[in-house]
Amino acid sequence: MWPDALLVGGKDLKVEMRSRVTTTQVAPYAILVLLIFGFAFDQDHNLLSKVTPGLFWVAVLLCALLSVQRSFAVEAADGARDGLRLSGLDPAGVFLGKVGAVALQLAALEVILGFGVVVLFGTGFADPGLLVLSAAAATIGLSAAGVVYGMMAAGLRVRETLLPLLVLPVVAPVILAATQCWMAALGFSATDGWRWLILLGAFDAIYLTLGVVGYATLLEEA
Q1: Most buried of the four, 22, 107, 119, 136, by CB within 10 Å?
Q2: For residue 2, what pLDDT is reported?
Q3: CA atoms of 66 and 191, how far apart (whole Å)
Q4: Residue 192 — φ and ψ, nearest 5°?
Q5: Separation of alpha carbons 193 and 157, rounded Å
Q6: Which pLDDT belongs to residue 42?
Q7: Are 59 and 189 in contact (CB under 8 A)?
């Protein structure tokens, strides 16, 4: 499973490095989202600082949808999905590879957005450990759920519009928990952000298990 995951993940990352869609389109899109929110709350800097965690994760969520759609659109265009089914690769490895590739792309975007948040909104960090761990857990959760539902929608003509409808309600707990963790990590909330990290871990475990166990069926049905 793990060698197949590395093979598929490396393939997806090589495709992305050659196309540079993340760096030339998705990253500027994410920064523009932050800028638009910044202009919307420009008159109240205190409010802007307090809502920074939520704005950050909304931007990450939108980028995650674009990254997942891009990953499956490339395979649909040249019949690569049929090649995956006929290749003999472990479906669980295919799932983990795609999750890893999407997660690494999101992680790179989060670093860029993190610098943007510091520069544009003047945000400081009170608990860097919680900040990093919650970001990692939320990124894995968004990637795993996105790949599962991306494969569900991959065989449909309306996959571009159906994917957000499937993913957005499901990942609401991830956005909520990640926002609460970041509010505590940035010093905007007195609540224990580490308790919300448990919710992120549970979400990751559920969708990683679901993908590993059921991806073979999803791949055949697509």
Answers
A1: 22
A2: 85
A3: 32
A4: -80, 105
A5: 41
A6: 66
A7: no
Q: Are 174 and 138 in contact (CB under 8 A)?
A: yes
Burial of 8 (0-12, 13-18, 19+ CB in 10 A): buried
Query: 79-103, pLDDT tens digit by residue?
Result: 667 777 777 788 899 899 999 999 9
- Contact between 200 and 137 under an 8 Å Cβ cutoff? The reply is yes
- The pLDDT tens digits for 163-186 are 888 899 999 999 999 999 988 888
CA angle at residue 19 from 16 to 23, to 5 degrees?
75
Within 8 A by CB and 6+ apart from 46, the residues are none
What sign for the dihedral angle of Cα 31, 115, 144, 8? Answer: positive
Work out the number of other CB atoms within 10 angstroms of the CB of residue 98.
Answer: 29
Q: CA of 62: how far to CAs of 32, 77, 83, 126, 178, in Å?
A: 12, 22, 29, 26, 15
Q: In Å, how far from its chain's centre is CA 83?
A: 25
Task: List Cβ neighbours of 168 (8 Å cut-off, separation of 6 or more).
Answer: 61
**Separation CA 91–CA 217 (nearest Å):** 9
> Which pair of structure tokens corresponds to residue 140?
């894995």
